[in-house]
Amino acid sequence: MKTYKTNELAKQFQIHANTVRLYEGQHFISKAKRLKNGYRQFDEIHFWQLFICRKIFEFPYSNSRIRKSGIDIIYASGSQKVELLDEKLAVYRSIILEELQKAQRANQLLLDWLNDQTIEEETHYYTRKEIASILDTTKETVRNWERNDLVQTTLLEDPQQRYFNEEALKRCRIIYLLRQVGFSMHAIYQCLHALDTNDASLNLSKEEAFSAGDRWLIELNSLFNSIPSLEEAVDKLKTLHLLTNL
Predict the structure, then answer these.
(1) Among 214, 12, 185, 10, which Cα is nearest to 108's?
(2) For residues 147-157, b (16+ Cβ closer than 10 Å) or e, as one string?
(3) What is the per-residue DSSP string for 24-39?
(4) Average pLDDT for 203-231
(5) Average pLDDT over residues 109-134
(6) Radius of gyration of the CA atoms of the chain, in A
(7) What is the pLDDT of residue 182?
(8) Is residue 40 left, alpha or beta, with left meaning phi > 0 and alpha meaning psi from -120 to 50?
(9) Mean pLDDT of 195-219
(10) Which CATH code, of 3.30.1780.10, 3.40.50.300, 3.40.50.2300, 1.10.1660.10, is assigned to 3-96+226-244?
(11) What is the mean pLDDT of the chain?
């Protein structure tokens, strides 16, 4: 099996040798063998573990769901729990696909609003919990959007329960999208106000919102397109694990 010194492994990924040591200390990659002189000796298993790290960390602006799932893959790889890697990678792929679908839907809503196109839909009401479930977020997050006047709710029969209609759900989809790309509550309020009022002086806010949605879609598509290379790395690790345990 091919071996690497710390600097040699670092050069393979154009990173500093201290980054390799950091990853080892964080258990992102396995502990290196120590030679008699105390120097670390890495091998092909470390190469593919580091490949997985760099491929996942290549996208620093992915959201918390994607990041957590990616970190799960890294820890399974670093601890050589190869039997978990296929399952972890499947979850990672599934989450990225879900986020892609949400982003595509929200982007279409933004485009419809920009073009003053509204589609009449059958009236349906959702609880805060249902909205949170649809968007894979928390009830407190949705409540915070309400507090910041980003979305309006409706009172029906139960005065203790507020409901979201279809228009409110659409707004929540857009709010979620803009939060993924780092928009502050104030910036989202301005964007939504521009869309609501059709004020020509606020066109920049509209364009910023749509441009941000486009960037998030590009990021998600890049993440999805990176999965085959992760699958290859996982296959390499499983093969190496078998060879070293013969």
Answers:
(1) 214
(2) eeebbebeeee
(3) HHTTSSPPPEEPTTS-
(4) 84
(5) 80
(6) 23
(7) 84
(8) beta
(9) 73
(10) 1.10.1660.10
(11) 89
- Record the tokens describing residue 150, joined without a space: 């980003």
Task: Report the SS3 class of residue 42.
Answer: strand
All structural domains of the chain with their residue ranges = 3-96+226-244, 99-221
* Identity of residue 222: S
Range 99-221 classified under CATH 1.10.510.40 = no
Which residue's entry shows tokens 């000796």? 41
Give the separation between CA 173 and CA 137, rounded to whole angstroms: 11
Question: What distance in Å separates the CA atoms of residue 196 and residue 186, rounded to the nearest whole number?
Answer: 15
Distance of CA 67 to the CA centre of its chain: 6
Tell me how far apart the alpha carbons of residues 141 and 213 are, in angstroms, rounded to a whole number. Answer: 20
Residue matched to tokens 């918390």: 64
**Whole-number pLDDT of residue 45:** 96
- Domain 3-96+226-244 and domain 99-221, same fold? Reply is yes
Q: pLDDT band for position 209 (50/70/90)?
A: confident
Distance CA 169, CA 134 (A): 9
Percent of the chain exceeding pLDDT 70 equals 92
The C-alpha atoms of residue 138 and residue 106 are separated, in whole angstroms, by 18
pTM: 0.83
Task: Round to whole Å and give the CA distance between 246 and 229.
Answer: 26
